[in-house]
């Protein structure tokens, strides 16, 4: 496994593989890897013959007062995990290499980034699309894999790729969960043992909404209220948003008359966690 830390070297490697006719699979991450990330890498491996993983905590997607500085980092541990999985190249650039002096170009997707995390974290998706567009130009992948845990991010990337005719296939991977249902996230490390117990309420809230849909409930506010009621059982939980939205456009929906996504963001202590479930009418 090769570790590359400059843009130029990564582009050379990608060009070489492309000349050889290799299919490049790509998994962008912010590191501090868990089983969710590894599942994305296995998926990329199945769909390509060379796998690149980027490890880059992207400053432009964090707002003031967010956790950029304290975001967990452990590149040595990450490298061990990726080597045992058969990743070919790890691209781990510095902030200065990705955002050199004078940087002033951004990529922005409009409608789909407005609600949910876009409303709560202004500028977040502009940072995500800018860095992902740049990573695509550096890694030159044929296929890139993203997790459905970051559901709005996945829709945003799909929109960007379609609108700008980027020649990359975007693959979504289902959410990987802990045995008690908690969606795996690097930020779970922020949870105290007691908060960790409460954090399972997020997936339980989604499971309750899914159960109600199975039982015939179609009223959006009833589904959201049921989810909120479960989250209210956690004394350390503060809801950031809990909303039912159109699963494709993220427009508001009053009734589940087409596929919807119940999207949650909640602080559990200091940790802001997200989770979602796609609900079929
Ligand atoms: N539990 C999971 N299941 C599936 N995909 C996941 C999961 N967690 C993260 N991913 C995906 O991994 C990629 C990299 O995400 P990232 O490095 O931000 O990890 P993370 O654990 O989501 O971190 P955090 O939520 O704390 O920022 C994204 O495409 C994300 O959707
Ligand atoms: C896609 C991504 C690596 C861009 O920094 C990040 O938003 C993430 O880890 O989901
Ligand atoms: N997984 C999304 C990265 C972030 O929260 O900034």
Written overview of the protein:
The chain has 281 residues and is α/β, with parallel strands linked by helices. It folds into two domains: 2-173, HUPs (Rossmann fold); 186-279, 2-Layer Sandwich (Pantoate--beta-alanine Ligase, Chain: A,domain 2), CATH 3.30.1300.10. Helix content is 38%, strand content 20%. The protein has a six-stranded parallel sheet, with helices on both faces. Strands 7-8-9 form a three-stranded antiparallel sheet. Helix 6 packs across helix 7 (151-163) and helix 8 (193-214) runs antiparallel to helix 9. It is globular. Adenosine-5'-triphosphate is lined by residues 29-30, 36-37, 40, 146-147, 149-150, 173, 175-176, 183-187. Residues 29-30, 36-37, 40, 146-147, 149-150, 173, 175-176, 183-187 line the site of adenosine-5'-triphosphate (ATP).
């Amino acid at each position: 496994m090769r570790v590359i830390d400059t843009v130029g070297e990564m582009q050379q490697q990608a060009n070489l593989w492309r000349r050889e006719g290799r299919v490049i699979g790509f998994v962008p991450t912010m590191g501090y890897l868990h089983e969710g990330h590894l599942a994305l890498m296995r998926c990329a491996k199945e769909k390509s013959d060379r796998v690149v993983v980027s490890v880059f905590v992207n400053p432009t997607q964090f707002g003031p007062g967010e956790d950029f500085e304290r975001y967990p980092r452990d590149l040595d541990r990450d490298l061990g995990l990726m080597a045992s999985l058969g990743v070919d190249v790890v691209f781990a650039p510095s902030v200065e290499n990705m955002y050199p002096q004078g940087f002033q170009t951004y990529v922005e997707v409009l409608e789909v980034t407005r609600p949910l995390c876009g409303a709560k974290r202004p500028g977040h998706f502009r940072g995500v699309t800018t860095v992902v567009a740049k990573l695509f130009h550096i890694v030159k992948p044929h296929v890139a894999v993203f997790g459905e845990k970051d559901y709005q991010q996945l829709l945003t990337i799909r929109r960007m790729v379609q609108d700008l005719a980027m020649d990359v296939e975007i693959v979504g991977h289902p959410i990987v969960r802990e045995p008690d249902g908690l969606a795996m996230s690097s930020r779970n490390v922020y949870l105290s043992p007691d908060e960790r117990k409460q954090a399972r309420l997020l997936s339980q809230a989604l499971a309750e909404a899914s159960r109600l849909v199975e039982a015939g409930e179609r009223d959006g506010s009833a589904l959201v209220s049921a989810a909120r009621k479960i989250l209210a059982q956690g004394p350390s939980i503060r809801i950031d948003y809990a909303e039912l939205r159109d699963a494709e456009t993220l427009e508001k929906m009053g009734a589940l008359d087409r596929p919807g996504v119940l999207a949650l963001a909640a602080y559990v202590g200091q940790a802001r966690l997200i989770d979602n479930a796609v609900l079929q009418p």
